């Protein structure tokens, strides 16, 4: 039912961190066109400071870095972003802070940038919008499907009244699963230390004693934070070794004596690949080529249910291969054996992941090291066995050093071309919703391949290994408990028959974004009220405008959600300038849909939200 236009509308945004701030920027940009000067109450709910939120708050240790260079971080749209709303350019983090663009800023520096972006977006709102900040937690949302909603806040007896609710909750805590509860119970019985999946910056690490072995399961960015806080954070320092007469210096770690000994392993057994340390010059692979809007439309419009591995992954594989070989032929033709035009024609005609395609690549690219093998990339230690723990340390140090060299050597610029293709693929996969990331596998592979630590962090890891502060466990790590001895035990397929014992276990990874075990009471209540969860535990949303889907697939008319807890999560935390910015497109679409719906509620004459083109167009 339409109400008189003089009645104030109310929009509640839960979460005022980076995603909430990005939505606010798009709301302010689109509001004059779609909502005019109608009165609006805008409520922002977040227990953490607006802008940076929890993860990027300025009050954390400056030892913790971003894993992006300052020039690669922007919160503003540019000419490459395809959106219906106005483009509003702004400075990158490097430009705003006056930083060298190639540096890796600290998280407090990024938090300060986000706070400034938030204040700028808020200042861009017209006087007809009244902003209310609520530094608390939203507990639940209630109300009829087609009526006004009530947002209940911790510590408040009276709920907020909302015409629309946008959830931009960011990364969330989760209650432990059955296995984690078993490990915690074992630790309690034997007086051990068990630290479950968590945000490392928020974890109390004081229980990990100096000099004692600590089993660490997880080798991604959470491990890097752990490594930093337990070494430099406890007074250790790094020095540059002058090296040999050729000048090949190596980093040396000087312990403080307060560090534990970290025994680290994971499924892959290796750290995430280093960030690439050079720019891509010359011709760039034209993307998308084999996995673009037309291919996605064909898959979505086909008969029967889709299977990611059977229907989608072969096209993704071919797309990444296309980027790899396009760059190889363009930049390193001496490492190829046929003309590009001939290869391109046959590559396009060959079926994805087929013997025909394998034979074509083998004939055209003589050196196997120049061929792209995504399965081998995902399982770097598969079939590798070491005879001793010392041999394993030497092998892993050699692997990490080689990765560092490769990721900073333009002779392997195919890696950077594949990185660009991975970003393109991520944007397309979001259109598939539930099947776009089965079991969170793709997101994990993306992070391992394209969102790893800065190169200097891996240099530090090598120095810590040399100093005996870090010991590698290998791949397919298994953790068990020994009731008789009262210890945790870890083994891996890389070193068969060997076990490492410790009285402390750290799960170095973020909590899974699962609705069933989420630490957010609001999301839990939505799930119990009928919101749809994927097999991976993500909140299902309409890929076009972010509206929350119920278990029947119907979009809720008044609930929207954006961010890592949803099926519309973007590939990285922040957008690189001039890359099309898929998160910007999501934010713009959601802001425009929300404003059109608010206008419809405010006008005595019916008005309808625009029918936009697909996000991937």
UniProtKB/TrEMBL annotation:
Segments for region (Disordered): 552-580
| Span of domain FAD-dependent urate hydroxylase HpyO/Asp monooxygenase CreE-like FAD/NAD(P)-binding | 12-171
Provide an example Pfam family for this protein: NAD_binding_9
Instruction: Determine the domain of life of the protein's source.
Output: Bacteria
Question: Which PANTHER family does this UniProt record tie to the protein?
Answer: BLR0577 PROTEIN
Name by which UniProt lists this protein: Adenylate cyclase
Question: Which species is this record about?
Answer: Streptomyces showdoensis
């Amino acid at each position: 039912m339409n109400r008189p236009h003089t009645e104030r509308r109310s929009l509640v945004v839960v979460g005022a961190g980076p995603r909430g701030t990005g939505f606010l920027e798009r709301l302010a940009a689109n509001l004059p066109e779609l909502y005019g000067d109608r009165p609006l109450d805008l409520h922002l709910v977040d227990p953490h400071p607006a802008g940076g939120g929890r993860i990027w708050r300025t009050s954390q240790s400056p030892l913790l870095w971003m894993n992006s260079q300052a020039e690669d971080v922007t919160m503003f749209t540019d000419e490459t972003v395809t959106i219906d709303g106005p483009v509003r350019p702004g400075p990158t983090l490097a430009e705003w802070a006056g930083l060298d663009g190639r540096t890796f800023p600290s998280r407090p520096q990024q938090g300060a940038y986000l706070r400034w972006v938030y204040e700028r977006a808020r200042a861009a709102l017209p006087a007809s919008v009244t902003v209310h900040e609520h530094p608390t937690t939203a507990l639940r949302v209630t109300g009829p499907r087609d009526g006004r909603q009530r947002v209940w806040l911790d510590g408040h007896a009276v709920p907020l009244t909302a015409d629309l609710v946008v959830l931009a909750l960011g990364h969330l805590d989760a209650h432990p699963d059955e296995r984690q509860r078993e490990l915690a119970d074992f630790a309690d019985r034997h007086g051990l230390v068990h630290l479950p999946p968590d945000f490392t910056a928020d974890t109390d690490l004081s229980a990990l004693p100096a000099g004692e072995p600590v089993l660490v399961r997880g080798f991604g960015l959470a491990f890097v934070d752990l490594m930093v806080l337990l070494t430099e954070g406890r007074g250790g320092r790094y020095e540059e070794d002058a090296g040999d007469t050729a000048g090949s210096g190596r980093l040396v770690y000087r312990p403080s004596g307060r560090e534990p000994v970290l025994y680290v392993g994971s499924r892959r057994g290796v750290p995430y690949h280093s960030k690439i340390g050079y720019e891509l010059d010359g011709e760039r692979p034209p993307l998308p080529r084999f996995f673009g809007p037309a291919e996605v439309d064909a898959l979505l419009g086909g008969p029967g249910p889709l299977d990611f591995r059977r229907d989608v992954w072969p096209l993704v594989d071919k797309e990444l291969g296309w980027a790899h070989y396009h760059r190889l032929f363009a930049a390193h033709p001496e490492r190829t054996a046929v003309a590009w035009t001939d290869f391109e024609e046959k590559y396009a005609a060959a079926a994805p992941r087929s013997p025909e395609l394998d034979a074509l690549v083998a004939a055209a690219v003589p050196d196997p090291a120049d061929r792209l093998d995504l399965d081998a990339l995902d399982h770097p230690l598969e079939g590798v066995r070491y005879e001793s723990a010392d041999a394993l340390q030497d092998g892993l140090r050699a692997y990490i050093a080689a990765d560092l060299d490769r990721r900073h050597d333009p002779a392997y610029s195919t890696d950077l071309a594949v990185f660009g293709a991975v970003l393109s693929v991520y944007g397309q996969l979001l259109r598939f919703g539930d099947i776009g990331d089965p079991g969170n596998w793709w997101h994990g592979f993306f992070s391992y391949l394209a969102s790893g630590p800065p190169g200097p962090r891996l240099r530090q890891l090598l120095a810590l290994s040399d100093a005996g502060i870090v010991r590698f466990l290998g791949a397919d790590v298994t953790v068990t408990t020994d009731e008789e001895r009262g210890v945790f035990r870890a083994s891996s397929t890389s070193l068969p028959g060997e076990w490492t014992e410790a009285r402390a276990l750290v799960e170095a990874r973020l909590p899974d974004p699962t609705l069933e075990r989420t630490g957010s009471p609001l999301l839990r209540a939505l799930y119990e009220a009928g919101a749809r969860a994927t097999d991976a535990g993500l909140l299902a949303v309409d890929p076009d405008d972010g509206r929350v889907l119920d278990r029947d697939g119907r979009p809720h008319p008044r609930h929207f959600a954006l961010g890592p807890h949803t099926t519309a999560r973007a590939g990285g935390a922040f957008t690189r300038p001039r890359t099309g910015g898929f998160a910007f497109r999501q934010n713009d679409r959601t802001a425009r849909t929300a404003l059109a719906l608010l206008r419809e509620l405010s006008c005595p004459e019916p008005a309808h939200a625009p029918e936009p083109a697909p996000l991937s167009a």
